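User: Could you check the structure of this?
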Amino acid sequence: PVSGEQNVILAQFFYLLGLVFFFSIDGHHLLIAALAKSFEHIPPGAAVFKMNLAEIGARAFQGMFVTALRLAGPVIAIALVTDLALGLMVRMVPQINVFMLGFPLKIAAGLVALAVTVPLLGGVLARVFEGMVRDVTVLARGLGG
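Assistant: Sure, the predicted structure tokens are below.
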């Protein structure tokens, strides 16, 4: 509120959930160890930019995109199914006010989807953070020459 930016409560919740999980699996120690180990691959002042860095960056982006789809996929699918059901309902029973019915139905379906997927996030986030350490090591090897 002080900075004037809008903040969605669920986005803040997932940010804090990821942060707590990152610290609970000692992700900060893993990341610091990977950065310290990068000095074995890249001595200070010896970084060499090679052509395969673009490939490493593209793979990292691909991994982030696929992970984002895996995390958001169930909630997006529930929202799509809810919209399709509301669309069919409007066609079959035009007297129903879909805006009055649809808004709480979408919220309820989204909250149910979140309640189902949040307990499953632990395993996914553990793999994401382990992959982060692996990607830092691969990047260090790529810059090492």
